[in-house]
Amino acid sequence: MTYENLDAKLINALLGNGRASLRSLGEELDVSVTTVSNHLRDLESEGVVRGYTPIIDYDALGYDVTAIVQLKVEGSALPEITERLREQKQMISVYEVTGDYDIIAIGKFTDTDGMNRQIKELLTDADIRESNTSVVLNAVSENEQFDLEVRE
Questions:
Q1: Cα–Cα distance between 36 and 23 in angstroms, integer?
Q2: CATH 3.30.70.920 domain residues, the chain
Q3: Where in the chain is the domain with CATH 1.10.10.10?
Q4: pTM summary value
Q5: Which of 63, 101, 107, 124 has the fewest CB atoms inside 10 Å of its own CB, making it the most exposed?
């Protein structure tokens, strides 16, 4: 077998089953276990594959309030504010963005009171000039990943 596109095929196989064994991956990709192991090790060392984690349904655990927080921040405070948000366990995503706001954070909360407390605490920071919070009514698509294109 040619190893062209093997990394993309390996990534796609892992997206389908992140718990697959090296042996089953080798069989699926028609390569040896050693080849799979070497390519996977390289993908991990390059930071392409950063870990293996379950996909959690937070709603099923009682975190059924999702908030999207948009913040305008004093420029020099951007790294400090993003780090504070990143450290808050319930903020599952934090982005520095272009446009009207500087930061967009997505959080999961058990109720609106908890969300309100955490956001109000954040807004006491003098470096936050403006905020806008939206509560998600329905998550149509969440935590989706996509297969890589494989050119044959």
A1: 8
A2: 58-135
A3: 6-45
A4: 0.81
A5: 124
Q: CA–CA separation, 96 vs 76, rounded Å?
A: 13
Tokens of 22: 């090296």
pLDDT digits (tens, 9 = 90+) for 17-31: 999 999 999 999 999
Q: Using an 8 Å Cβ cutoff, are 13 and 20 in contact? A: yes
Q: Which of 84, 105, 78 shows the shortest CA–CA distance to 93?
A: 105
CATH for 58-135 is 3.30.70.920
